[in-house]
Structure formats: structure tokens, C-alpha cells
Amino acid sequence: MKKKVLIAILMIIVIAIGVIGYFVFSDIMQEDKLRTELAEINELTNAEQIDMDAINDRLDRIVTTGDYAVVEDAFKSYLKENFENNIEIANILNDEKLTKLLTVENYKEDGKDFTESKNYITTTRTALENCKAKYTEFLTEDKAMSYINDKELDSYYTDLYKEEFIGNMESASQDTTIQDSIDEIIAILNTSEEILNLLSANQEAWEIQGENIIFNRENLSNQYDDLINSL
Q: Dihedral of CA 173/181/82/46: which sign?
């Protein structure tokens, strides 16, 4: 009788160890899957030729399960919104219209009131200021953690998200390259607006001859040249 009880207890222990081992192994596999997925996304974003379709495919899928899936979804949501803002910044900075505002071609097409050009400057400047604010916010720990803090996860998963995937936000925030580029474009927009305001306020004092703008007042010509040279 005692042997049967002992055997039953041993079987329960073996089964319990097996179940625990299964869940431990499953967790290890899920965490490894998550790390691999995020490492591959990082590789895609650092490639010389960025394939946004491949990146979006990764960001739109979930490869893990359980609590790891919650961590994965939180981090990918954070990345996706960050990327969307960065793409908007890139699109604005690469907009050809920025380089055509002060061309004779634009003076002919939109002068002499420059209504369309001024509206473009206002809209673009506002968009850049908003993008810069978002970009800076995305580099804060509070913003990054906001994607997971309300998920009611065990601290292990929250710490995994924070320490392994978010990392040191402070060091990332010290690189001001993007913010500086945005500030440079905003400064160019501001000066361009000054020039167009100068031209629209003195419509009778200038005209286009061939591929040049000609002024009939020297002081206005000097003001124009000073502003152009400040760009």
C-alpha cells in the first residue's frame, strides 16, 4: 500500500515537473522568437536601402503568444507610430516645392500675391513643428512605456519591454540631428516667407525679365539680396 502511495506521489511529481518544464521551455521559445523578430526589424531599419513594405509586414504581424504577444504588440505599435512620424518628416524635407519657392518659375506662376506659396509655408511649418514635437516625445521613456503600462502585465514582461527593447532613451535623445534638420528647414521657410512678403508688398517695384527678377528701387533690391544671401 505504501509503495502504491509512493509511486503515485512520484508520478505526480514527475508530471508536475514535466508541466513546469513545458511552460518554462515554451516561455524561453516565445522570448527567443520575440528577440529574433525585433532584431530582424532593427536590421531592416538599418539597411542601406530601406524596404518599408518589409518593415510594415513585420510591424503588422504578431509571432508570439500569451503575454509575450502583448509585449510584442506594444513595442510594434510604438515603432509603427514612430516610423510614421519619421516618414512624414522625410517627405516634408524632401518636398521639391521647398526648393522652388524662390525661383523665377514660382514668381511667374504664383506672383505677385504669392497666396499659394504663403499657404504652403504656413502649412509646412506647422506640420514640421508638430512632427518635431512628436519625434522628441517618442524619445522619452514615458512615451515608450505608455504603450505597455496599461496592459496589467506581470513586472517581468514590463521590465523585459523596458530594459531589453526600449533601452536607454536618454542616449538616443542626445542625438539632435533630426531636430536640427527640421529647425534648418523652418528657418528657411521663415526667410522665404519674409522674401515673398517683401515682394507682395512692393508689387510695383519688381518684374521678371527672362530668368531674372529686376527691381526699380535699389533699397528694395538690397533688402531682397540680403535675405537671399542669408539662406
A: negative
